[in-house]
Design brief:
The protein is built from nine helices and eight strands. The chain has a five-stranded parallel β-sheet with strand order 2-3-1-4-8, sandwiched between helices. The longest helix is centred in the C-terminal third of the chain and has 20 residues. The two termini are 20 Å apart. Bound molecules: BIS(adenosine)-5'-pentaphosphate. BIS(adenosine)-5'-pentaphosphate binds next to helix 1, helix 2, helix 3, helix 6 and strand 6.
């Protein structure tokens, strides 16, 4: 399953919940890149300038980073992707990997919301320094201000969540990632969700869609 949508649409929020519900590995390229930046690895150093500018990290770095994960034993019974693929070249590469391992993509879950909603929403996002658990100061606040409910670590704003970087990320999305909507629609895989609804409502609709797909598959 693939989550697609602009920055701040709620992909991470919904994908982590679905991964828990269906006990599937959750693979988020943004989280993997932020971990590499934190470690100060070669990949992290190469990726940071692109992330801070709101641009995509070059495909060769992304494909090298994700290849091992997609072919790992833990993904044999399925996986949930968040933030990958992000352009047609990455989608072609994913298609090849899936075909090679005789698996198939089940569904692409597109969460949509207008740019002005996304800019406002992202400005209220807070993430924990330890595990990237995500909150929102208004819509999903932690029980204790500034502290993660799950691991007790400090909550901070992401480096790329400043308004000017968010605008650049949205432009990158519209130019480079949005063509994937047609790409997957033509393949009959796309399902659309209104990301302006509450997180619980979006989650219920996604779960209903996935349950229906599983039911149809079982018939
Ligand atoms: P990445 O980490 O993937 O960021 P993104 O796609 O910009 O998505 P976000 O994490 O900002 O948003 P989200 O949709 O997950 O929203 P969330 O659930 O957190 O990528 C970061 C960077 O890494 C990229 O810019 C790029 O440079 C690089 N990169 C990553 N993958 C790459 C790739 N494949 N190729 C090249 N470069 C790559 O929700 C947002 C906020 O809203 C939260 O506070 C949440 O609590 C709240 N919220 C969620 N849902 C709702 C709702 N329904 N109503 C109200 N509030 C809500």
């Amino acid at each position: 399953m693939i989550f697609l949508g602009p920055p701040g649409a709620g992909k991470g929020t919904q994908a982590t919940r679905l991964a828990k519900d269906f006990s599937l590995p959750y693979i988020a390229t943004g989280d993997m890149l932020r971990a590499a930046v934190k470690e100060g690895s070669e990949l992290g150093r190469a990726a940071k300038e692109h992330m801070d500018a709101g641009r995509l990290v070059p495909d060769e770095l992304i494909l090298a980073m994700i290849a091992e994960r997609l072919e790992a034993e833990e993904t044999a019974h399925g996986f949930i992707l968040d933030g990958f693929p992000r352009n047609p070249a990455q989608a072609d590469a994913l298609g090849d990997t899936v075909d090679r391992s005789e698996r198939r993509l089940a569904v692409v879950l597109l969460i949509e919301a207008p740019d002005d909603v996304l800019v406002r929403r992202i400005s209220g996002r807070r993430v924990c320094v330890k595990n990237d658990h995500t909150y929102h100061v208004d819509t999903d606040p932690p029980k204790h201000e500034g502290m993660c409910d799950q691991d007790g670590s400090r909550l901070v704003q992401r480096d790329d969540d400043k308004p000017e970087t968010v605008r650049a990320r949205l432009e990158t999305y519209h130019e480079q990632t949005e063509p994937l909507v047609d790409y997957y629609e033509q393949r009959g895989l796309l399902r659309r969700f209104d990301g302006t609804r509450t997180p619980a409502d979006v989650g219920d609709r996604i779960r209903a869609t996935v349950a229906t797909l599983r039911f149809e598959e079982a018939l």
